[in-house]
Design goal:
Layout (H helix, E strand, L loop, with lengths): L1 E9 L4 H16 L3 H21 L11 E9 L2 E8 L49 H8 L2 E6 L6 E8 L12
Antiparallel strand pairs: 1-2, 2-3, 3-5, 4-5
Length: 175
């Protein structure tokens, strides 16, 4: 079984629950374990929220007012990519060193440039902090995470995957 979808969404807060609901509906219909679906939906929400908040620059015109979400359920794995057209990860928007990358980076669906060494940040975000926990949560909830910039173009790409568990009655379970 293989399912994939891609969304081109406006950088508006209302787009985040839309992407999350589509992912949850797809996984429920396929028969993915609800706990795995929930973990991936939280990670997706965090990646989308980052794209909405940081993923554009009005100097680039209309394309910076959107971001792309792509999800692949292929065999025993779900892979999700969120790509924006903002400035990417820079000294002003570093990749958070809150947690080391989890495992080796899987081959991304699109090439991702290396990110310069991150600017030092606190070792752990405060529990009640309003910002700074999204990438940490994605790393905790997914099996493999890759965070970087689009090569040759402005924009950041956050991709992550997770091994799927299936309900016993799963109609589309991978064989």
């Amino acid at each position: 079984m293989s399912i994939w979808w891609s969304l081109h969404l406006r950088r508006e807060a209302a787009s985040v629950p839309l992407a999350r609901r589509l992912l949850l509906g797809t996984m429920e219909t396929a028969g993915v374990d609800p706990d795995v679906s929930y973990d991936l939906s939280v990670a997706l929400s965090e990646a989308c929220a980052n794209a909405v908040e940081h993923g554009g620059d009005t100097a680039h015109g209309d394309c910076s007012q959107a971001y792309r979400v792509t999800a692949y359920l292929d065999g025993e794995k779900c892979r999700i990519e969120v790509a924006d057209s903002g400035p990417g990860f820079t000294a002003e928007r570093p990749v958070s060193p809150l947690a080391p990358p989890s495992g080796p980076a899987p081959a991304p669906a699109l090439a991702i440039a290396s990110v310069p060494a991150p600017v030092p940040a606190p070792v752990q975000a405060s529990v009640d902090a309003e910002q700074g926990r999204g990438l940490f949560l994605i790393r905790e909830l997914a099996d493999h995470v890759h965070i970087g910039n689009k090569p040759g173009r402005a924009g950041a790409v956050v991709s992550f995957d997770k091994i799927l568990k299936w309900r016993k009655d799963a109609p589309l379970m991978a064989v």
